[in-house]
Amino acid sequence: SHTLLIEKFIFLLRYHIYSMEKGQCYENYPGWIxxxxxxxxxxxxxxxxxxxxxLGLAWSILYLIFIGIMEFRLIxxxxxxxxxxxxxxxxxxxRVSSMFFKKGDVKKFCKTQMTWKDMLxxxxxxxxxxxxxxxxxxxxxxxxxxxxxxxxxxxxxxxxGFIRSSLACRYCKQRKLGCPAERLFDKNVxx
Length: 191
What we know:
The N and C termini lie far apart (48 Å). The radius of gyration is 18 Å and the shape is globular. It is mostly helical. The protein is built from 9 helices and no strands.
């Protein structure tokens, strides 16, 4: 049954990539993209929480609180100003944001400047458990921990990279209007 599920996902992915014209944007992303995007994030959070749990329950809880703060910061401070506010973005957060917060200004989103310093808290979601996992491996080697650290690394860089480049940003209307993350990551975009 897992093989059939994977085959269906690959079919949907191929169909999606080949059927979308270059430059076309989603007004509302399909549910399977939201599911795929959030699956990567949730897997990162769960692996991170498990790694932090090796230090004790309190560390795992603190890590999960940190993730909650990061998600709150995103939907309250950024999603309210995004084109996808009240709509289904690649992560579904535009709809979530509209349930709790008043609409902001899309122009504000477009004018926002982002630096690597601004990205640091987001990077820490993966880096804290990654570094913790490496330290734990040095202190006491464990195959399970090694697999989790490698998986966390792959999900963070390869998984997120794929989601953002192939499924999310590629078809994002906000990217076309102006996206501070694209300006940060894409050196070919004029600042």
